[in-house]
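Hey team,

Filing this mostly as a record. A colleague (T.K.) asked me to run one chain through the structure pipeline before their review meeting, and I want the input and output archived in the tracker in case anyone asks later how it was produced. No errors, nothing strange. Just documentation.

Input sequence:
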Amino acid sequence: MVKHVGPEASGDERGALLSFIAEQRGGIRRALIGLTEEQASSRPSASELSLAGLLKHVAEVEQMWVSMAKGEPPAVVRDQSTWHECFRLVEGETVASQLEYWEKVAAETEAFVNSVPSLDDTFALPDQPWFPPDGRVSMRWLCLHLIRETARHAGHADIIRESLDGATAFALVAAEQQAEAGS
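Output structure:
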């Protein structure tokens, strides 16, 4: 659900990276426009993915990566026994509550990226078999990774939404623009 991302101010690499992250977040948010909780949690394809689950997942993952870059523990710790819960709403969770949480995470991400002295600053990757031993990545890498992670799931969201009711990215962008104009 792509919208145009305007050019950054000259030399504003952080602003450009944050704008692309925000644009991809918008794709997932738009995929939820006008849906009931039941529709958002349904799985209309062969995949186990739902729009509500994708929303929860991207919020948790973004928060986890920013916490890691800050040297803090993530808000939610997942392991093999709870991994499936990051892709579905559990008791008491709603699409609205997850959207609200993601807004807070997004604000934290933007504040953090704008506060680091340099995008070349690095942080340690966790000791996991899929990361190199003693691996480190830059804040720039963090932003690019968040763009990639969110964009991948925004593409999933496009397919799921179209499978639910035929709504495509263009129709959802138009609906969002109409809602914004009416506010």
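Quick notes for T.K.: The beta strands are 122-124, 136-138. The longest strand covers residues 122-124.
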